[in-house]
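Annual report, structural modelling task.

Input specification for the 4'-deoxy-4'-aminopyridoxal-5'-phosphate complex:
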Amino acid sequence: MSRVYNFSAGPAMLPEPVLMKAAEEMLDYNGSGMSVMEMSHRSKVYLSIIENAEALLRKLMHISDDYTVLFLQGGASQQFAMIPMNLLGGNRKVDFIHTGTWTKKAMTEAKLVANVHVAASSEDKNFSYIPENYTFSPDADYVHICTNNTIEGTVFTHIPDTGNIPLVADMSSNIMSEEIDVTKFGLIFAGAQKNLGPSGLTVVIVRNDLVGKHGENTPVFFRYETHAKEKSMYNTPPCYSIYIAGLVFEWMDQLGGVKAMEEINREKAQILYDFIDESEMFTSPVDPRYRSLMNIPFAAPNDELNKKFISEAGKAGLLTLAGHRSVGGMRASIYNAMPVEGVRKLVAFMKKFEMENK
Ligand code: PMP
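The model returned the following structure:
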C-alpha cells in the first residue's frame, strides 16, 4: 500500500486512523453482523451512531441547546437555495459580503427570491482580501458571508458585527479548523467533504428562533423545521457519511479538540507561507492579512513552470496541487487531516524545484 499526500480542495484527505477504523468495522459494525451501509437508519444501532456524532459535534464546537444541528444532503450548494427559503421575512432583503466564487453562487440563488444588497465586496482586487468596512441594510433579513474562500485562499479574521440581523456563514472549507464563537451566528453550514468527512453530508447549525420562519409555499422537504422536528430523520439520511464524520469527531476529540486542530493548522500554514515569502520563484496572490490556513494558492512565474511543477509534484507523491480551473496556478489545501509532515514534504519539494528551475 502506498498513500500519497493529497492536497485536494475536497473531497480531501481523511485521518488515517479513521479510515483504518472504518475498514476494521466494514463487515461487522460493533457486533451487529453488518456494515453501517447496510443497516436501517431507524435501527437502534444506527440511532446511537447519529446521536453520538451530533453529541461530539456539539461538544467540539461548544454548541448550546439554543441551536439545532441538522445532518442534511444536497451539499453547501443546496443551502444557497434553502437559506433564503427559510430565513426571508417580509422585507425579502439579504445583505452579502461578496468575497469570491462561493458568495457569487449563493447570491445567484438568493436573487431568485430576494433583493440582494452587496454590503461590501473584494471584487475590485480580484478577491485577494476580505473587506472590513460594511454598510448593512437595517432591514435585511440576514447577512451572508463565506468565512473561508476555498478558491481565492482568503479567510475572515474578524467576524462582522451585524447587531440584531442574523449572520449566516458558509464554513464549508474552515469549519472546525479554528475555534469560533457559535453564538455570533444565526446559521452555520458546511459541506462535509473538506474537514468533516465524506461528501454527501451537509451540516447545518441553526439558531432555534430561525427555524420555522419559512414561507408557506416552501416545499415541506426544504423547510429546516421538517428536518429539525424529525432529528435529521425525515427521510433516509446520508448514513455512512454521518458515521465517518462521527469517527472524524472522535479523532479530533482525542487530539484535544478544535483548539488543538487550530494550533497544528497555524503551524502547517506558517511553514508554507514562510517558504513562499522567502522564495524567489513562488508568489502568493493573497493579501497577507487575510491568508487562509486551509487553502493556499501560489504560483510560479509562468504557466509552463506551473504545469511542470504540478506534474513533477504528482510523481513525488504530492497530489492534486493544481489551482481551481477558474484561477490557474497551484493551490495546496491543507485541512485538519493533512499531517505536518505532508506540508514539510511539499516545502522541501518546492525548494528543490526552485533550485532546479532557476
Ligand atoms: N462553499 C464553499 C466555501 C465551498 O468550498 C464549496 C465547495 N468547494 C461549496 C460551497 C459548494 O459545496 P458543495 O459541493 O457541497 O455544494
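The chain has nine helices and 13 strands.
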